[in-house]
Design a protein that fits this description.
The complex is a heterodimer of chains A (145) and B (246). Chain A has 145 residues and is mainly alpha-helical. Chain A is built from five helices and no strands. The chains are: A mainly alpha (145), B mainly alpha (246).
Amino acid sequence: MSAHSASPEITFHPEHTGGTKKIWKTFWLLSVITIIELVIGLTIYNIHKGEHPNATLVLMFKGVVCILTLAKAYYIVSIFMHLGDEIRNMIMTIVVPLCLFIWFIIAFLWDGTSWKNLKNTNAGSREYKVEKVEKHTAPEKGAKD
Amino acid sequence: MPTNTKWWNGGRSPFNASYGKVMMWYFLMSDAFTFGAFLISYATLRFSLNDWVDPNHVFNSFPLAGSANLPLAFVSLMTFILIFSSVTMVLAVHEGHNMNKKGVEKYMILTIIGGLAFLSCQAWEWTHLLTHEHEVWINGVNGAAGHVELWNTTVSHNPFGPEITVNGHEYATPGPISFGSYFFEITGFHGFHVFSGVIINIVMYIKAKSGHFEQRGHYEMIEKAGLYWHFVDLVWVFVFLCFYLI
């Protein structure tokens, strides 16, 4: 039953004991996280439907969903893709370059925000104002906001 | 040492993993940067705009459900299909470790079915967006009267902009064009990965069925195909987050 007779590069053959229990456990974990995400998604939907959506609350819920997604990514990579079973040096050659994403995300979201500020302040020449152009150029008779 | 020995220089893998598997990991890492760049560029654009579309409004339909308002329903079905096909894939890898040919075949078939189901869902979703028409209020130019047009969601038309009230009716206005281009670009690129993953899985199934891996003495190819397939699921987790949830 030895599964590795033809892989001479491998020095230590990993033990693949243990049944499928861990796999199913991870499946249920991923499903539960997804359901929580969906509940939060519907909550955000309902907040938006209300009269005065609370922007801070929505932002907080979105942050929670992002963290839950990272948790899902961790379980997929470490259990389903068995990266957690590889030796540490190999994990590092994959995870360390991915840290570039930290800079990548901060820099570009910063850029997007700055772009928006420039537009809404006319490049800093007036006070911040979001122009609702659409509402004022509908010229039909009796048109109201 | 024979010249055709495919050992790493030095004869042993520094990571105690075969060359092919390590290179598959590095390929997936580079692919993660490609998807990451797409998603971050989408996020940058979205951060720069005052209005975006409400995903719960755009993705609220379900096959055969008519015009019922079901936000998030269809996309959660797609998500669960992909998670489940990931489980069957990892079970195929597990059976491969045990050299169980029948088990590998069974779980590969289930994984392929899962992949095809996901692709069908995506085909329906795209068709629905591209063909379903929505009323949009178009402003008059130079004093001309505004009017209502019927728009599909495409790379050049977005009928999900902010709503206005004209003569007591609520109308959507044209939304940012970039919504359609980013949505079709990123889900299309992901869908193409799913498609190629299904092809790879079919090849793996045929090879397992015809006994290639049993002859070779190990099922490592299934593991490598599995890495690719799980990566596809991993990317979907982020696409799901960026386009449907937030």
